[in-house]
Specification:
The structure is a single chain. Strands 1-7-6-5-4-3-2 form a 7-stranded antiparallel beta sheet. A hairpin with a 2-residue loop joins strand 5 and strand 6. It is built from 3 helices and 7 strands. The protein is 29% helix and 43% strand. Helix 1 packs across helix 3 and helix 2 crosses helix 3. With 136 residues, the chain is an alpha+beta fold. It comes from Nitratireductor rhodophyticola. This is SRPBCC domain-containing protein. Belongs to the AHA1 family.
């Protein structure tokens, strides 16, 4: 008897941003800046740190999994029945940085979560770009 593997889906957003990775890293890791483009939070860029993201609709419980300053950041994302991982990768380019965000772990029966993330993440990243733009 064989069991088919449960196939999960991911949302991936990539943007070329005309700023260095160090500047983008600030917006990804400083709580007051994260609050401007994503949600209120108690984030710390420290592996194993548990933090929450909160908005009017509710919240997300998270745990930092990977911290590679100016290069990579990932955290577990747990809200009700969605357990996924959000990963950020910053790759320097000649014109700035290629920012890649992936949220992986959407189960086949989680279509509303997947659709929400597919629409939400591009908006959040556009807001992140506006925050980065005004940083010194």
């Amino acid at each position: 008897m064989t069991h088919a593997a449960t196939e999960t889906r991911s949302v991936v957003v990539e943007r070329e941003i005309p700023h260095p990775p160090e500047k983008i890293w600030r917006a990804l890791t400083q709580p007051h800046l994260i609050a401007e483009w994503l949600m209120k939070n108690d984030f710390e860029a420290r592996e194993g740190h548990r933090f929450s993201l909160t908005a009017d609709w509710g919240g997300v419980d998270c745990v930092v999994e990977t911290v590679e300053p100016h290069r990579a950041l990932s955290y577990a994302w747990d809200t009700k029945d969605l357990r996924s991982t959000v990963s950020w990768t910053l790759t320097p380019t000649k014109d700035g940085t290629l920012l890649r965000m992936e949220q992986e772990g959407f189960q086949p029966n989680q279509k509303p979560y997947f659709q929400g993330a597919s629409v939400g993440w591009p908006r959040f990243i556009s807001a992140l770009e506006r925050v980065v733009e005004r940083l010194d």
